[in-house]
């Protein structure tokens, strides 16, 4: 075999690739290299690839043993020249060496691959810089060190790691950091320039001709980092920081998300041992969840277990399940989750610390800037700016689509501890009361957008300039702030502001019909009934007990609780001689009895409800009679009497046609749409398909215009069935597909029926 000459490797590789009929992209993919790295090898820009790289290329090219040895021999001269070039420069004396790698390092495959691509694709005129930023405890330093060990062979001129000590009272100054880096590169102390700018220039000069890997760990800010970055050459710099360092230009950002559950269990397995995890697999999953899948917390839990070989995982999982003890338990030796969080907390100014810990007092999984500003007692604009900076520090996370913020579970516990420790009870109570009053006032005003009765007076919103305008923005706000205004409702009740609680629930009455899939309506109307009782207002108590029965029936699907609430409403309404609420209570009780299968009792109550409302001459009595007749007809249909059901619903239509004075067109349209829906079902049961289609189509148009999905979905479903019986398959499929979408989007219990009807259509087609 002839001896290869320097520079031959790239030519030989290119010829082998062409002979194999492979593109650069395909060979690079097969060998596990970047296209840029392969191109640099072929052009001779990169010489002397390592043995593992040559072996990977040989396998991808399908070379024989002799061909592989020949290609390996062609790489040797380039390696020799590289070693000579390295020997000609100053030799690093060993300071700033990499820390020990974690032998049980787990996951982070995508992030490691991203760094490998950066290392292989380095361009001399733009040295690669990777920023690894995020919340405390994510394992940023461990990741950077592990990556450096993994990439070490690619950087034969050395790997350096410098801790910039961002969490210290005085982080490392740029000039001092430069002096240490220059010393590690062999620059004698007496020759190091005095000025920071000159030191930075010398560092750039030295790194331009070397292939180094630098870890700049625990960086404070951009001002500290900028002078330390190489200006040219093929170095790779990995910067870790608790700040996002968004001011750095032309850097690659490497995201370290929370571990997935299976990755978290794998980390525990590597620390604790396969056998213990296999014996208590579910306990290991529970531990992963209690640790919030945060690497630091998982490592602490794992090392605690490793130090106590006789302790069961289930015991630790049960202890960690108690939130008030969780942070106490997540410490072992000199490692503490609480200490890691405290370092970041102490870096904040006084107002930002106040804002952050007060955010932990918010209800629900996330919060808005308005809630944060109210809890902290600072202007909204100031809160918005500070919340963004807290996200930059990894102490909060922002929603990708909305201006909302959330904690990691463990950070929330720590923030709540700080609020309990640093804020006196009167100030915390004042913050909660201020927030609750504002939230309940806005929720009441937003809900009134859906009331069937027009409201021309002031809305009562606490900040009209930022109030939701129109139904869509109001609904979006009520949805996003559901946990917060519900907590405000309970706060009003427990602090004696019973009138506000009752008025807020009353404002929610019509909105609740549009969102029957919310189980929270049980809480809303139970709270309102309790508040009305505390006010000594039996009529309002009966009304909200009736609403509670509706919520148990329609939202929580708990007919036994619904019957109990309806009977309580009936007793209160009769005691205060309120015919309207008496009739409603009979109707809600009948609805519960129907769901319990007690049809004869249900029909009897519905007849009594209709009679009670018939004797009530008020417009509200007429509307209630319409509802009672509609429900009676529905029950008769369910009980197998479609002719009697049709009679009840036609009676309801007659009342509607005669007109009800004082009612808005919007409200009357709701009743018209529902009556037609029932009539369509009756006609379908009687196999009067044409009449059924006409009624259901008109009902669909009305309910869609009114935007009432809780009733629209069933109408679409029934129309689809009618069209299937009429052998109009395409139209049936369109109606049933719309029904499935509407019912599924609103968690309606009849979504399974729509899916089954579509399957029936498909089976008939085949």
TrEMBL record:
Keywords: ATP-binding, Nucleotide-binding
Residues annotated as domain HTH cro/C1-type: 13-68
Gene3D superfamilies in UniProt: lambda repressor-like DNA-binding domains, P-loop containing nucleotide triphosphate hydrolases, Tetratricopeptide repeat domain
InterPro entries assigned: Cro/C1-type_HTH, Lambda_DNA-bd_dom_sf, P-loop_NTPase, TPR-like_helical_dom_sf
Annotated transmembrane regions: none
Pfam families associated with the record: HTH_31, TPR_12
Gene Ontology terms for molecular function: ATP binding
Region entry Disordered, spans: 451-471
PANTHER family from the UniProt entry: HTH-TYPE TRANSCRIPTIONAL REGULATOR RV0890C-RELATED, REGULATOR-RELATED
Protein name listed in UniProt: ATP-binding protein
Organism: Streptomyces amakusaensis
